[in-house]
């Protein structure tokens, strides 16, 4: 398995993810790159420090995403939805390889999406039945108000499900203090563990 982690400048998140993956996942080739990376920059000193405190050495030089790297990778894991969209726009031929990191390792969202689709369909069906029954009895402004009251419970259910959808972005520590980098590293660490389990199945 060949993994490519992608962030913006390839100096914070993706190098940390690469270092963790190399440290924790055996029999896997790992690289990282950035959608707007400048060639050959060192990783952020705070990223190096945060990893050092976990006993992991980070010796890294930044590189931009290229056609060659995308050809090389089996899976491309981006740090945010925006990074994924950038890759789709610039390199559309590889989009079957693109996932946000969280999207790839988390299965939970699939269930929520299924429930949401059902909730939307349920809401629409009840709404059209209510309109059919009451459209001649009420004027339009009253009808809207009555629909909202009639379907308040369904709307609440939809809002609750939407709130459970995962934010697919890994937090960006750039410009933050060492604590911000450590927090991002902890977040990455959690998903690297899930990735290891998924790959080794």
Keywords:
2 domains, single chain, Rossmann fold, 201 residues
* Count of distinct structural domains: 2
Report the sheet-strand fraction. Answer: 5-15%
The CATH superfamily of the largest domain appears as: Response regulator
Here the CATH topology of the largest domain equals: Rossmann fold
> What is the 3D shape?
elongated
Question: What's the CATH architecture of the largest domain?
Answer: 3-Layer(aba) Sandwich
CATH classification, class level of the largest domain: Alpha Beta
Tell me the strand order in the biggest sheet: 2-1-3-4
Strands, count: 4
Q: Structural class, judged by helices and strands?
A: alpha/beta
The end-to-end span amounts to: 13 Å
Mean of pLDDT = 93
Tell me about this structure.
Strands 2-1-3-4 form a four-stranded parallel beta sheet, with helices on both faces. The protein has 201 residues and is of the alpha/beta class. Strand 1, helix 1 (13-24) and strand 2 (29-34) form a beta-alpha-beta unit. The chain is elongated. It is 56% helix and 9% strand. It has two domains: 2-106 and 167-199, Rossmann fold (3-Layer(aba) Sandwich); 108-163. It starts with a strand and ends with a helix. It has nine helices and four strands. The model has no long low-confidence stretch (mean pLDDT 93). The longest helix is centred in the middle third of the chain and has 27 residues, at 108-134. Helix 2 packs across helix 9 (178-199).
Brief rundown of the structure:
With 201 residues, the protein is an alpha/beta fold. The protein is 56% helix and 9% strand. Strand 1 (2-7), helix 1 and strand 2 form a beta-alpha-beta unit.
């Amino acid at each position: 398995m060949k993994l490519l982690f992608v962030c913006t400048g390839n100096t914070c998140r993706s190098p940390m993810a690469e270092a963790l993956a190399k440290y924790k996942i055996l029999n896997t080739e790992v690289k990282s790159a950035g959608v707007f990376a400048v060639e050959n920059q060192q990783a952020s000193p705070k990223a190096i420090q945060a990893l050092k405190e976990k006993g992991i050495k980070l010796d890294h030089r930044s590189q931009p995403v290229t056609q060659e790297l995308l050809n090389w990778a089996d899976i491309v894991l981006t740090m945010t939805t925006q990074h994924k969209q950038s890759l789709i726009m610039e390199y559309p031929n590889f989009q079957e390889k693109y996932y946000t990191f969280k999207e790839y390792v988390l299965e939970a969202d699939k269930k929520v999406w299924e429930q949401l689709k059902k909730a939307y369909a349920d809401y629409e069906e009840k709404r059209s039945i209510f309109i059919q029954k009451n459209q001649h009895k009420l004027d339009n402004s009253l009808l809207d108000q009555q629909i909202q009251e009639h379907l308040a419970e369904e709307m609440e259910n939809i809002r609750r499900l939407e709130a459970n959808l995962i934010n697919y972005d890994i937090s960006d520590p750039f410009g933050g203090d060492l604590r911000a980098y450590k927090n991002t590293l902890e977040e990455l660490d959690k998903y690297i563990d899930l990735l290891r389990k998924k790959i080794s199945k």
